């Protein structure tokens, strides 16, 4: 396998961040609204200087604390407590300012700005924090009014229900974000596992299978080595397929060196294709090496340019398809490779004259942990946005079509 490890980056999307931005705008607009209400009824206040002093503090506080309500991280408990205190003080100062309507049912000095303070608690801590903040606002309104009138109860319930609902939505959004992030992490880990499984199939499993066959043919001590290699092949197939079957300690020790060498040696040799990662790569040279006495290679006259990573994966899938031809159709089978460079896709067809694949055999092989089709071919094509299709008629050979769309 190549020495370069591809890493999946999980992008965490914040569903609640737009709510924080909306809260920033709400606080500024409601502050201006409260000041406008005061200015329009300035002459009816007995002590307008109390209201002016409060609005001066409210304006400075609202504008200075905008960064604190830009996100959950900066919105601390200390800030929330101070913010709620500003709202409660404004409610209690309303009758002190001498506005009769503040006592008889009109708006308080901060007016609907107080809802912004409660909403900040809801966004930060969820519906329980929202309920607690609403309780303080409700008590302050009752104290300021002097009794629990219908209008007072209506206003308190409205703020309470709205803030609790928003707090609950935020909690659900956060839970959804965590679930999505976990799902993306699992998907990234699964894709990496599939990539490793393909590389293992292309190297280690084939080496172990060859050792088993040659050992059984030679007999003697070689047969024992072949038996241990067979045990290790079964265990490794089960592992990459999702589980682990027990194998003897002796076979593990005997196969460990071969496994490590098969994995590490390509890393030390390096991937010659990596040097050409700066631009598109011609697919034809990557496939031309397969041509031989029993493999016919047909290519276009012009370069078939693809992204380097896609070209390598497609070439590896072709190699895996030819390995299947040699394994299942026999060493005497003929194979044909046809490369087509269409305007919308690169299509590589691998055809043989073997006995064909019985119906249902591919699904059965995948269930048995044999990953030549599931991972080395389909998995590689899926990773680069392509598809792999099999056409096989018993007694008439097999045709594999590898299709990789070109990115616009």
From TrEMBL:
Residues 312-407 form the Histidine kinase/HSP90-like ATPase domain. The keyword Transmembrane applies. The chain crosses the membrane at residues 20-42, 48-67, 79-98, 118-140, 152-170. It comes from the Bacteria. Residues 8-181 form the DUF5931 domain. InterPro entries: DUF5931 (IPR045975), HATPase_C_sf (IPR036890), HATPase_dom (IPR003594), Sensor_HK_TwoCompSys (IPR050482), Sig_transdc_His_kin_sub3_dim/P (IPR011712). The keyword Transmembrane applies. Residues 192-223 form the Signal transduction histidine kinase subgroup 3 dimerisation and phosphoacceptor domain. Keywords: Kinase, Membrane, Transferase, Transmembrane, Transmembrane helix, Two-component regulatory system. PANTHER family: NITRATE/NITRITE SENSOR PROTEIN NARX-RELATED, OXYGEN SENSOR HISTIDINE KINASE NREB. NCBIfam families: HK_morpho_MacS. This is DUF5931 domain-containing protein. It comes from Streptomyces kunmingensis.
